[in-house]
Amino acid sequence: MLRLGYPVIGVADIDRAVAFWTSALDLAATSEWASPDWRTLHHVDGSGRALCLMRSGSPAEARPRIHLDLLVDTTAEQQAEVERLVGLGASRVDWDSYPPEPDFVVLADPDGNLFCVVDLSRAPSGSAGR
User: Fold this and answer.
1) Spatial CB neighbours of 45, under 8 Å, sequence gap ≥ 6
2) What is the DSSP pairing of strand 114-119 with strand 68-72?
3) Which of 20, 61, 83, 110 has the most Cβ atoms closer than 10 angstroms to its Cβ?
4) Distance CA 27, CA 46 (A)
5) One GO MF term, please (predicted)?
6) pLDDT tens-digit series, residues 34-82
7) Comparing C-alpha atoms, which of 124, 111, 83, 105 is closest to residue 8?
8) Which structural domains are found in the chain, ordered by start?
């Protein structure tokens, strides 16, 4: 039976990506399938895999067709998490496709991979342009 796996993010620097994503999402790197080109991140509560990182030689896409949405419950939490993530090494993205009152903020991880921080109290914003 076919099953959906876990999101895999292509990165140039595995160690830097592990540091960012484990701090950003309170995950833990494991030795499962670990290699210089691959790292599996698990939930710290032991509930299983959450995210995988794979070394990639290609650059991050400016408009990726698939990206991560990180969810928060309030606008205040969204603002606080955006600041925390920027402090961990994410960068703000000058996104030219925001709807009039967006419920999401576009950021890039240290490798330039885009992701969104979505405020569920204001969702959906009309995310067709994302």
Assistant:
1) none
2) parallel
3) 20
4) 10
5) lyase activity
6) 999 999 999 999 999 999 999 999 999 999 999 999 999 999 999 999 9
7) 111
8) 8-55 (no CATH), 68-129 (3.10.180.10)
